[in-house]
Design brief:
Sig_transdc_His_kin-like_C, Heat Shock Protein 90, alpha+beta, 2 helices, two-stranded antiparallel ribbon, 7 strands, 5-stranded antiparallel beta sheet, about 150 residues
C-alpha cells in the first residue's frame, strides 16, 4: 500500500509539470523520531494554491490550475486514506522554489522495524504515467519534457 502512495505522488509530480519543462522530483526519507519515519516527495510542478492545502486530500477535489491535465481528483485522497490506515500523517505545502512538497510521517512499526540507516520502504524502480516510463534512483529524477 505504501508503494501506491509513492506511485501516486511521483506520478502526479510528473503529470503536473508544465508542458515543455523537465519534471524535477526529490525524494528523501529520514528517521523523524525514535518511533517514526518521515518521507518527503518534492516537485517543481504547477503547485497548489495556499488556500487549497487543507482540501487537496478530499475526494474528487482538484487544485485550481490543474484543468489542463488529466485526472479524477482521487489520487491524493487515496494517499491520505492509506497513510491514515498506517496511523500516519500526510500534508502538502509549498516547495521553496516552486511546486509542492508532500511530507509523510509514519510510525516505524507501520512498515516493520528497520535499522535507523534505512528508509521504511523501498522506492519504486520506475513510475508509469501518461508522459513517460520514469526510472528512479533513490533520491531524485529528472524527466525530459514531452515533445
Amino acid at each position: 500500500m505504501l508503494r501506491q502512495v509513492l506511485d501516486n505522488l511521483i506520478g502526479n509530480a510528473i503529470k503536473y509539470t508544465p508542458h515543455g519543462r523537465p519534471a524535477r522530483i526529490e525524494i528523501s526519507a529520514r528517521r523523524h523520531t525514535v518511533d517514526a519515519w518521515q518521507i518527503t516527495v518534492a516537485d517543481r510542478g504547477i503547485g497548489i494554491n495556499d488556500d487549497e492545502y487543507d482540501t487537496v486530500f478530499d475526494a474528487f477535489r482538484r487544485a485550481r490550475g490543474s484543468e489542463g491535465y488529466s485526472g479524477t481528483g482521487l489520487g491524493l485522497a487515496i494517499c491520505h486514506r492509506i497513510i491514515e490506515r498506517h496511523h500516519g500523517h500526510i500534508e502538502a505545502q509549498a516547495n521553496p522554489g516552486g511546486g509542492t512538497r508532500f511530507t509523510i510521517t509514519l510510525p516505524a512499526d507501520a512498515v516493520g522495524h528497520r535499522p535507523t540507516s534505512s528508509p521504511p520502504c523501498a522506492l519504486p524502480e520506475a513510475v508509469s504515467t501518461d508522459r513517460a516510463e520514469v526510472p528512479l534512483d533513490r533520491y531524485s529524477a529528472i524527466v525530459p519534457p514531452t515533445p
